[in-house]
Amino acid sequence: MLHIGVLVVPPIQLLDIGPIDLFAMATQDYFRVCKLPQPLIDMAIPTSELAITYISASGPNTTVPTTARLGLAINAGLIDPAVAPGKLDILMIPGPPPGLKPDEEELAFVRGHVDAGVDLLTICSGVFVAGFAGVLDGKRATGTDGVEDLLKNYFPEVKWERKRYVNDGKIWTSGKCVEVRLVSNPDRP
C-alpha cells in the first residue's frame, strides 16, 4: 500500500495540489482506461494499493479554502491514527501563502513524520511549512522564485539552492511550477 498524506495549511494554492493527481493517475485502472500497453499497466500502482488522505488541523469532514476560492474536502485531522507519524509513505505539503506560519500542532505533525522516516515532498511555498517545522535545518532545499530573500531570512540554517527541485535524503523541495516534473521524476520518493 502506498499511503500519501497531503497536509493542507489553508489557504493552499490550487496549482500546488495538482501533483497528487499524477500519483492517482499512475494506477492500473487509470492506465487501463487510457488503453496503455499491458507491460505499462503491470508497472503501475495497483489501484487498491494507493491511498490519498487530505489532512488539516480543521479535522475530518471539513472543507478548507484554496487561493482559487475552491473548497477542498478534508478526510483526516492531525490526530487521526491513520495518519500518525510512520503511517504515511509520503507527506506532501502544497503551498500556503509565502511566510504564513502554521500552528504548532501542524509543525509538530511535520516533524513527527520526518522523524519517523517518511518521505517529505514540499511543493512551491509549502517549503515554508517545512522550514517553520525546523526539518530543513542543515539540509539542501529550494523554494519558489521571488521569495529567496524571505526564505534565507526566516531559515538561515538551510542550504538554499536556486534549482527547480532539490532532494536531500528523504526530503524533496520544489520551486514554482515544477510540481509535475518533480513527481514524475523516476527517482521521486
UniProtKB/TrEMBL annotation:
Keyword Phosphoprotein among record annotations: no
Domain of life: Eukaryota
The keyword Lipid biosynthesis belongs to this UniProt entry's keyword annotation: no
InterPro entries: Class_I_gatase-like, DJ-1/PfpI, INH-QAR
A UniProt-annotated Pfam family: DJ-1_PfpI
UniProt GO molecular function: transferase activity
Span of domain DJ-1/PfpI: 51-176
UniProt keyword annotations, A-Z: Glutamine amidotransferase, Transferase
PANTHER family: ARAC-FAMILY TRANSCRIPTIONAL REGULATOR, DJ-1_PFPI DOMAIN-CONTAINING PROTEIN
Protein name (record): Class I glutamine amidotransferase-like protein
